[in-house]
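During the reporting period the student researcher (J.K.) took over the structure-prediction task from the postdoctoral fellow and processed the backlog of single-chain submissions. One of the processed entries is reproduced below for the supervisory committee.
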Amino acid sequence: MVLILDIIVVSGIIFYISQTQISLINAVKSPKAYRDTSKSNSTQIPDVSTMTSTANFTTSSLAKEREYPIVNEESEIRNTLTAYFDTLNTHSTEDTVKFFTDEVEILINYGNDYSYQGPNEGIVSYLSMAFNLAPDSKISEISISKIKINGDKATLQMNYVISSESYNFSMSITEYVDLVKQNSEWKIRRTNITY
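J.K. obtained the following structure tokens:
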């Protein structure tokens, strides 16, 4: 039972960043297309960039120009992760893998419970198994914090709840994520899921 619970948790966590919901039959959207066309019926992640203190509005024009790209990048990251969580909640392995870089590292509890490093295709069978074991698992109560952006790289912390009614299971998760911007899209390069 503990193995099944770990598999459910790990699979839910890996799928936690689910991003896209398929809104058109037979249409698969990229994270960029999702950001551009679908704002409703998706996981809502609060945008802390709108809660900027008034001190930022008294800075010089040059300082403001430097701040806007970071706010825009943070918004793009939030949109990507929203689409990622939506995809996880649809249990689509093929669509979920698209949110990762070609080479990926996944750790569960700092590698003590699970670790994988290699091509993103390597997580497909794992995700399939997890989705099959808990077909009703869902991720909710998502919050993103501690976003740090440095050029085309970013790190952040996410907290969420993964649950399954059929297993009468609910668990709080903290995840630490490294992202990289590739071809104008943010992708997950490394993730450490803790519980």
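The committee noted the following: The domain at 2-20+62-194 is CATH 3.10.450.50 (Nuclear Transport Factor 2; Chain: A,).
J.K. will present the remaining backlog at the next meeting.
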